[in-house]
Amino acid sequence: MADGMGGSTVPRRQLGRYLRELRGKARMTVKVAAEALEWSEAKIWRIETGQTSLRSHDVETMGRVYGAGDDLTAALMALAKETKAKGWWHSYGDVIPAWLDVYISLEESATALSIYHSELVPGLLQTDDYARTLIQTDHPELTEQDIERRVQLRIERQALLTRVTDPPGLGVVLNEAVIRRPIGSEQIMADQLAHLLEVGELPNLAVRVMPFALGMHHGVTSGPFIMLEFPINGTGMPTEPTTIYIEGHVGALYLEKPHEVERYEQAFNHIQRTSLSEAASKKFIADAVREWRK
Questions:
Q1: pLDDT, position 4
Q2: How many CB atoms are closer than 10 A to CB 291?
Q3: Within-domain flag for 71
Q4: How does DSSP assign 180-199, residue by residue?
């Protein structure tokens, strides 16, 4: 995992936003703030974008330079301590890239995830054999041990769907290609689709299918994406801005600007409306299970 990425991502991002707002209210540029704190401008940027954890002492110093009140500074110092906390997934730090560490931290904190995928079953819904086939194919250079660790990480992530306290809502739309394309053997595909039917019975999870026959829809132009929404705090604001996550071959893109989020929100709403109903999707998947088992 990349340097500076230890600790919990969400508190780091929250703290960075608060400190950026304080600097703005103090009418200080990054250059002026860096000079006052005797730090580099790059360090200020890393702090404000949540790329590094902070000591309480550093936050106290920044609060003083930015003219923050004692109560606010104390609250930010407490938040700084949370940035040191490590999530369960950090034990897999040797086999996951830093950008995935960011995503898992957000995934753990989200109250709702809206997922559209055109080619693959999302990681949160994969069986171990399906996940193993994908990882072996995508990373032939990995040892068997590293492959198994990646598989285990993917399976452990799925615990959030059934956790006792506030499991997130999950709305998933899968292009028909996900159902038809063989990933591994016929048995692996049959078991994977049967698993989709099983998890689809969870009260917080809805799986829909977008058949080829329905033609053009917004997912064709948007491509696969995940929209994450977060809980509301005591002031009536979300603890994190709604975030669009787009995974690429060598990294990931996180979109938070309101106009960007709005475009993807509209796209998902259209995709969901255009796709089969939940009941029709279950029948579609059940029929595919029988076909794969033949």
A1: 39
A2: 14
A3: yes
A4: HS--S-HHHHHHHHHHHHHH
| 46 Cβ contact list (under 8 Å, min separation 6) | 4, 52
Q: Tell me if residue 59 falls in helix, strand or coil.
A: helix
Q: pTM here?
A: 0.79
**pLDDT of res. 2:** 37
Sheet holding 112-117, edge to edge: 205-210, 169-175, 112-117, 225-229, 243-247, 252-255
Residue 1 domain-assigned? Answer: no
Report the DSSP pairing between strands 112-117 and 225-229: antiparallel
Residue pLDDT, tens place only, 79-132: 888 777 766 666 776 666 766 777 888 898 899 999 999 999 999 999 999 999
Q: Identify any residues that bridge with 252 across adjacent strands, giving them in sequence order.
A: 247
Low-confidence ranges of the chain (pLDDT < 50): 1-6
Is 221 found in the same domain as 257? Answer: yes
Of 193, 197, 196, 173, nearest to 184 by C-alpha is 193
Task: Examine residue 2 and state whether it is found in any structural domain, yes or no.
Answer: no
What span, in angstroms and rounded, lies between the C-alpha atoms of 224 and 216? 15
Q: Which residues contact 58 (CB under 8 A, 6 or more apart)?
A: 80
Domain region containing 223: 88-293
